[in-house]
Amino acid sequence: MISGKRILIVGGGIGGMAAAIRLAELGGQVLLIDIDPQWRVYGAGITITGPTLRAYRRLGLLDAIKEQGAIAAGSTIFRYDGLRLGQLDEPALEEGLPATGGIMRPKLHRIMQARVKALGVETRLGLSVSALVNRDDGVDVTFTDDAQDRFDLVVGADSIYSCVRRMAFPHMAEAQPTGQGCWRVSMKRPPTLESGEIYLGHRYPAGINRCAADMVYLWMLTPHVSRERHFTDDELFDALRANLADFGGNVGWVRDNMTRDDWINYRPLAAALQPGPWFNGHIVLLGDAVHATTPHMASGAGMAVESALVLAEELDRAEAIPVGLAAYQARRFDRCRHVVETSIAVGKMQLAGESPEAVGSALGAGLHRLAGDY
Ligand SMILES: Cc1cc2nc3c(=O)[nH]c(=O)nc-3n(C[C@H](O)[C@H](O)[C@H](O)COP(=O)(O)OP(=O)(O)OC[C@H]3O[C@@H](n4cnc5c(N)ncnc54)[C@H](O)[C@@H]3O)c2cc1C
Fold first, then answer.
1. For the whole model, what pTM was predicted?
2. pLDDT of residue 227
3. Phi and psi at residue 140, in whole multiples of 5°?
């Protein structure tokens, strides 16, 4: 059913590119637009869990990710001072699929962008939409450069503050702050670090993941720091170093070896599972636009890629677009709800100072549920 259909995808991030790839492979005439004229992504690392690796395998990009990122058999949990507590219970999903991994976001984007370009998907940058009008058989779109066009389907993959959601889904609300903020630094690899490490038992949980042979990123979650003004990179560096003061193990190594030239970032967390329907006529939402989560389960990107695969599959077998969109939502809602709700719950446990064992087992149980197919 997709073959020959004119499809507009708003947002060329992880979910939008995954949708563009699969819809183009099925014969759709895809136009992908992104508001960023340079189509950039910031310089953090990203954790790619087993389910996310499985989704990327189905998208045909696993080998490139393995080559340019880092994969591991699992992650180890430590007490904040460096005492090893055990392994995180991460399920093995499929023959030949690593349990977990990581990659630098710019590399992941380049891998996906290369596939989008190789498929001949038309891409326009520095562009968004300013009006969407549903018709019986498609959507009339006005772009921010005042051009107008008609599409069979519009996919809103423009992330947590989605303009497509604001325009076409009045029953939905803005994502809500969860009370935590995430600090990240990308830097060279501690010499003894082989796979992911998670440090619990401190009021600020932290972790390190490999993203390439010689690179890692460290994350730390704190209660949200109210920022009435913009912090400079130097201030962020000093604040993160201070937050890491009590840590041992490789987190201590990162604290002592990070430099002011390393990429560093602080971001307050927000989340929202949007109520259905996730589609309105011939307009549909995907990724953080409709299931924005916090990074606790490191599954937001995986959910976006899975949603893109399911959207394409259901549209392809449906007799009419609204039928395919309803089937897409039916397959995705509970799984995405699980990720959003579990991630928020784990964040609350951390804010309440619950034990490393309780937090570790909530995370493990949450990840196990994602092992099931979608
Ligand atoms: C601190 C933090 C750490 C995270 N760590 C992980 C992790 O380790 N593993 C993991 O799986 N997930 C992680 N996530 C979640 C993950 O980043 C997201 O779930 C994922 O990127 C969602 O993909 P998306 O395509 O919906 O949005 P995005 O990847 O954000 O892409 C949205 C795109 O839309 C474009 N856009 C925005 N507005 C418009 C507009 N109006 N018009 C046109 N284009 C627009 C943007 O330029 C961007 O290219 C993390 C999230 C946070 C906040």
1. 0.96
2. 67
3. -85, 125
